[in-house]
Amino acid sequence: MNLLNGIGPMELVFFILPLSTIVMSVILQLVIKKKLIVTGIVFIAYLIATFAVFNSSFLFWCFIYTVISFIVTLVVDLTIKLVKGSKQSV
């Protein structure tokens, strides 16, 4: 049984994997609270997937998803700091 039945490679690259990268980065940032470790985990996961599931042409997308992950972790970290700062001022 194919779990990705009906999903083309373009939908996977442009929608499913970026959304899963964002969700995974937010969850990991809330749990681990270290931006570079979260980004490293995402990079290693996509690097393994590049050679285990896809081919070497997916390596470009591996770097793109790593950059997306880093940006998301920065936003989540900034949001957490702003929420903590607003709670302390009240």
Task: Explain what this protein looks like in three dimensions.
The chain has helices at residues 9-32, 35-52, 59-89. The chain is mainly α. It has one domain. The mean pLDDT is 91.
Mean pLDDT: 91
CA-CA gap between termini: 55 Å
Spatial extent as radius of gyration? 16 Å
**How do the SSEs run, as a string of H and E?**
HHH
What is the helix content? over 70%
Biggest sheet record:
none
Spans of at least 5 consecutive residues with low confidence: none
Please work out how many helical segments DSSP would assign: 3
Based on helices, strands and strand pairing, what is the structural class? mainly alpha
Instruction: Identify the overall geometry.
Output: elongated
Number of separate strands: 0
Strand content: under 5%
Q: What is the number of domains? A: 1
Entry summary:
This protein has 90 residues and is mainly α.
Q: What topology emerges from the helices and strands here?
A:
Blueprint: H1 9-32, H2 35-52, H3 59-89
List keywords for this structure.
0% strand; mainly alpha; 90 residues
